[in-house]
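Input sequence (301 aa), recorded before submission:
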Amino acid sequence: MTTQPYKISFITVNYNGLVDTRAFLARIGSIPFSFPFEVIVIDNGSVQDEYALLKAEFPFITGCYSAANLGFAGGNNIGIRMSQGEFLYFLNNDTLLPEAADEQLLAMLAFFEQHPLAGGITPKIRYMDPPNMIQFAGCTPLTPITLRNKQIGYQEIDHGQYDQNREIPYLHGAAMLIPRQVIDNIGLMPEAFFLYYEELDWCCQISKRYSLYYFAGALVFHKESASTGIDSPFKTYYLTRNRLLFAYRNSSGIVRILSLLYLLCVANTSKMCSFILNGKWKHVFSIWSSTRSAFKLFKST
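Predicted structure, token format:
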């Protein structure tokens, strides 16, 4: 067995996001990392081959162009298969590492050495604008029936109130550092979701054997993604479908039944009534079609 040549594989998925991905790569290229690393960019079905454009500008990257959009999990899974790093750092293409990323990543790697059962860590995530506002500083568990939880520190100004590491139930999909050994043991990201809930489902699988952590000593800046549109029928479809799929895959017995009943009879019905009252008929159709799709997926998952 050959030794992995890279300590960290940075993996990002691009979808018609040339401007954001260019900024992401420029920041990585400007940081003098003290450890060997690779940067993998997967262009996930963009209108044009943006990977080729990025490769010409940033020759240090590797990756590929996928003519088909394979979803968040599918794109990252290509990156996983191509990667050679001991640790895989999954970062959204609309994030920026801080200038002190080298020191922070060394601290994250030291954390794994001190916590051999750590299955993954997410750093503190702040918004790009305003840069002192927190997006993620950990989270609470999902309630078993309603599947609701809270992101700790969400939209609070960072005064250092969340500067302590803590164990958390789920990592944030915008920034996840995971040892390769964990992925080898657990498997790739679940591709049935396509978009939304895949990292939650993956974290549920990881947490059966490992612990997940919020790491306060590292930081990532994140732009809120607008690629799917705010309040779009597309977003309504995948959130509705995947919430049902997540409940089905990650619960059993009476809890599964109650959760599905709540989502179908309370959450979905309430949303449909709201959409009908506001004349948003495309959203109404999205809920109907996504519910049918979810039940079809139950049979194959």
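Checked by second reader. The first strand starts at residue 6 and ends at 14.
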